[in-house]
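Figure 6 in text form: structure in, sequence out.
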């Protein structure tokens, strides 16, 4: 697979000016956007809005291929249009396929309504602005055709992507389609679902000016016809819910777009408005105080951490009154433990991701320390001894997770591979399996409670091929040469094999998990391994002076933890924020120390046991005041989102745009966006949340231009050896694209309400 990053310069769709300002600055070299890489065009760099413009006819400026307007208004009532449709003659080019000469409509059929391999016929598009809460119904009436016999119409090309991610078109005739004795397309007129372009609701009518019978080779050209178009309510929203255009104000930077796109531009202006914003909670905003200083603490591994007074002083954090220190993680305050020497301790978690074990962008969490206006949350001492005879516990169920990411599965087939959005099963892959494949993975276990209880194995796999015979895939799972079980699954779906196995199957040290793909009746059979997990009974023995474990509800319990290097023990219930104070320390410096404590739990409890000196050192960063990027008193027409390394040239460019183009500008450091819209964690969704807030709440007119200043990579972790680029400003999806950032209509993921460009500097 190719290097998962892209370079070159993506031009803004509707540039403010042909003038290109030169902004010299260290770390920003315009040469990075020139050369061969800049000449390569990627499919996803074309906005769907631009493609729509290429195929739309406009009363204000568009002309048909015959040199005159294709659509002429004959009659109009409040809920109806009668339109004369007079398509022009489309040019054709000869194409040689398998020794025969076909006629190709070429670029005129770029928006064909047929699939790859079927005859590719041109399409014309009539685009209308419509009132909110309505949709269109349309019919072609009294069509007049002329026929041409003996024409071989070329098929729609299929597109393939090579290892360098370059796209190639190839013509392959679908014999089943070309043997049909009927005219195609079967639906010569299609009314698409309405979409939202900023303040305007829009609907498109796609019309086929040619029909073709592939069996008889008869090409039928539409000479003229009449479109009867009705405007009907769709019940999606009431008129009283729409904010008027007057209240929202003009939309100057998109006015030319409306004129070019809409056949009924003047009429549609009166229908502009916006759907009401639904009041929703914003947890990424509610936790911080604008203007207050916060110190970021990155955490890359689970465990108990410490901060010293010297750490705080070096970072510029206050040490005058430690009682007001507050620690936040993902918007929630978490308790800290302040020891007698003023050392501050807390339990930190790595970034485990939202939907998968490994986050797409980073494994490092962000914790935030600040001096608040009140006392911070602390671990509460708990010394109450439970009544009754406690159940002795010397082991608990531990889980190991094993996952390697060696390849990225983008989907199956051209339509999925080129889709800028998630496809079934998309994500990082460990290994691919084919019929007869058998692969073994080694995993290490320590401190097994030998012979006690059961263990469990879970394996996540995903099928990537589909066949009519069930099952498509079959896999056997082996643990140390013992068969844990077999699973069959169909098609393109994910499964998690889960089975209980005797704990005696496992050994302290190296163990083996083997997955074998069993041949099925399907010749094409592929699935991949995502990850596997092992639950096993583990003795409560500390490693490097720490241990974290979970006990099931039990009333009461007595836990014994061994393997501690010194007697200065702390026991914290991190589930409830309690500091257990009633415990007994045993052992010595030769055999090691142990601790025994009693507790009562009506629900599962997770404990952290550690000795002083074993805490992981926390790295605290210099403080920053959150500026509250959601608020902007003047608004902006032109937004630049960039990385801190390019902040100075971004500011210079914004100044140039203000003075030369007369636009309002805003520049945002992508890290500030992460901090205020995703608790400090990198995410394309955080960038979109910032842009959506700016579009919806800043003073009118809403932002129209977005420039992303910085290169992107969809392999932030650099799993692949060929990955070298820094993910300065993320793109969305794999393959990567930026159009998604401006798609604010939840029902439409293609039409952007922003003109978007990127300068891919490294």
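Output sequence:
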């Amino acid at each position: 697979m190719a290097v998962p990053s892209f370079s070159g310069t993506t031009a803004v769709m509707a540039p403010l000016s042909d003038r290109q300002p030169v902004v010299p600055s260290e770390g920003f070299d315009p040469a990075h956007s020139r050369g061969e890489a800049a000449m390569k065009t990627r499919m996803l760099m074309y906005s769907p809005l631009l493609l729509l413009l290429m195929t739309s006819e406009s009363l204000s400026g568009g002309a048909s291929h015959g040199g005159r307007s294709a659509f002429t208004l004959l009659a109009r009532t409040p809920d109806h249009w009668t339109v004369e449709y007079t398509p022009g003659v489309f040019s054709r080019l000869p194409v040689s396929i398998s020794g025969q000469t076909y006629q190709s409509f070429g670029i005129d059929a770029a928006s064909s309504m047929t699939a790859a391999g079927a005859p590719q016929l041109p399409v014309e598009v009539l685009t209308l602005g419509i009132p909110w809460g309505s949709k269109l119904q349309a019919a072609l009436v009294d069509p007049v055709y002329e026929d041409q016999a003996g024409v071989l119409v070329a098929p729609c090309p299929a597109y393939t992507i090579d290892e360098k991610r370059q796209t190639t078109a190839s013509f392959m005739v679908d014999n089943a389609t070309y043997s049909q004795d009927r005219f195609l397309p079967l639906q010569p007129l299609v009314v698409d679902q309405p979409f939202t372009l900023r303040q305007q609701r829009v609907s498109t009518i796609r019309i086929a000016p040619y029909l073709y019978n592939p069996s008889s080779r008869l090409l039928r050209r539409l000479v003229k016809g009449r479109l009867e178009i009705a405007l009907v309510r769709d019940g999606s929203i009431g008129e009283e819910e729409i904010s008027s255009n007057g209240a929202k104000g003009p939309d100057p930077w998109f006015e030319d777009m409306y004129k070019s796109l809409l056949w009924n531009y003047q009429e549609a202006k009166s229908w502009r408005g916006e759907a009401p914003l639904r009041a929703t909670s914003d947890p990424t905003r509610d936790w911080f105080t604008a203007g207050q200083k916060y110190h970021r603490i990155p955490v890359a591994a689970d465990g108990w951490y410490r901060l010293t007074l010297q750490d705080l002083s070096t970072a510029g954090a206050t040490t005058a009154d430690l009682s007001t220190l507050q620690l936040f993680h993902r918007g929630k305050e978490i308790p800290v433990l302040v020891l007698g020497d003023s050392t501050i301790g807390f339990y930190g978690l790595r970034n485990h991701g939202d939907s998968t074990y490994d986050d797409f962008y980073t494994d490092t969490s962000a914790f935030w320390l600040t001096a608040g206006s009140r006392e911070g949350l602390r671990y509460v001492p708990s010394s109450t001894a439970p009544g009754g005879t406690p159940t002795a516990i010397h082991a608990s169920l531990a889980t190991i997770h094993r996952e390697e990411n060696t390849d990225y599965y983008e989907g199956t087939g051209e339509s999925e591979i080129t889709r800028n959005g998630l496809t079934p099963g998309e994500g990082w892959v460990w290994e691919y399996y084919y019929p007869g494949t058998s692969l073994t993975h080694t995993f290490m276990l320590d401190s097994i409670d030998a012979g006690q209880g059961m263990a469990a194995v879970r394996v996540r796999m995903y099928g990537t091929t589909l066949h009519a015979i069930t099952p498509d895939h079959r896999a056997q799972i082996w643990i140390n040469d013992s068969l844990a079980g077999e699973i069959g699954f169909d098609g393109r779906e994910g499964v998690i094999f889960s089975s209980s196995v005797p704990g005696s199957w496992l050994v302290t040290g190296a163990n083996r998990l083997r997955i074998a793909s069993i041949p099925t009746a399907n010749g094409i059979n592929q699935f991949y391994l995502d990850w596997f997990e092992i639950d096993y009974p583990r003795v409560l023995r500390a490693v490097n002076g720490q241990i974290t474990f979970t006990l099931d509800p039990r009333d009461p319990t007595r836990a014994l933890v061994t393997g501690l290097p010194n007697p200065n023990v702390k026991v914290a219930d991190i589930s409830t924020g309690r500091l257990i104070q009633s415990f007994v320390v045993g052992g010595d410096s030769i055999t090691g120390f142990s601790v025994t404590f009693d507790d009562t739990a009506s629900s599962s409890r997770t404990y952290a046991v550690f000795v002083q000196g074993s805490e992981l050192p926390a790295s605290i960063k210099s403080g920053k005041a959150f500026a509250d990027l959601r608020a902007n008193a003047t608004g902006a027409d032109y937004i630049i989102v960039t990385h801190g390394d390019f902040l100075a040239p971004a500011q210079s460019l914004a100044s140039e745009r203000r003075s030369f183009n007369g636009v309002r500008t805003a520049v945002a450091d992508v890290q500030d966006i992460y901090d205020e819209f995703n608790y400090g964690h990198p995410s394309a969704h955080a960038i979109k949340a910032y842009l959506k807030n700016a579009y919806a709440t800043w003073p009118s007119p809403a932002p129209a231009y977005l420039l992303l200043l910085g290169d992107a990579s969809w392999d932030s972790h650099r799993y692949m050896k060929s990955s070298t680029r820094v993910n300065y400003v993320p793109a969305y999806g794999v393959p990567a694209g930026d159009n998604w950032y401006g798609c604010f209509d939840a029902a439409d993921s293609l039409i952007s309400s922003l003109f978007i460009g990127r300068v891919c500097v490294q």
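Caption detail: The first helix runs from residue 36 to 39.
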